[in-house]
Amino acid sequence: MFSSLHVTLSIRIFVAVVALCAAILPACAQNKPNCEGLPDAGRLRSTVQQIVREGASKNSGMGNQEWASVVNRDGVVCAIVFSGNTRTDEWPGSRVIAAEKANTANGLSGRDYALSTANVYAASQPGQSLYSLTTSAPPNPQAVFGDPSAFGTPNDPMVGKAIGGIIVFAGGLPLYESSGKLVGGLGLSGDTSCADHVIAWKVRHELHLDAVPMGPTAEHNDNMILDFKNGVSASGFGHPTCKGGTQPESIIQDLSKNFPTGPHAR
Q1: CATH number of the domain at 35-258, out of 3.40.50.10490, 3.30.565.10, 3.30.450.150, 3.40.50.300?
Q2: Higher pLDDT, 157 or 14
């Protein structure tokens, strides 16, 4: 026979276990985001490496190694990888920037209209309609920090967590399945923002996630618009050209022709 003391202790232990499970299970669930239709870390890394190897002559910029990240439609990180041999081959700061670019492109795009991070540069400047956009969704510090040896691996501390953050320069693109369904965002960082955009565009094309329905360019997609003159974007969706390394203008202008978007592009 159990004494009343045993019963009381058993109840207390049971309550403690239930409370512990309640605290742990949501965190465990975060580590298994719904990434259906999105590339895993292995495919993302091999694709980014393939494009980065083309070099500055085809991608513009300085030919640097890149960080790349994919988030799902909820802004939860599904993968974060680097293109070099080790995580020190890339700019360390670009790890978080890549993820925030992916979050921005996903968060500001919809089923019927796509916006790249390049497309929101002009409107986010002082005196423009989206000024202070960069402070509207601060990054999640709990998603960023952890064991550095895991950075860029399938066990990166970011994976399974909402990264947050808004970036308003080029390198982030929304991801659309062939059916037109918006499934998340892609972010590249590590070179000039123009080179990041070019590499992201090619990576998205290679992943077959570029069925963009509509966008602000003349080609009705989310390509970078280089229309700044005297500090003003004629379209309101423009981005300044990038200095440093191979210049990007002709490469960017030819992206829509060489790597077309839309459900009928392939």
Answers
A1: 3.30.450.150
A2: 157
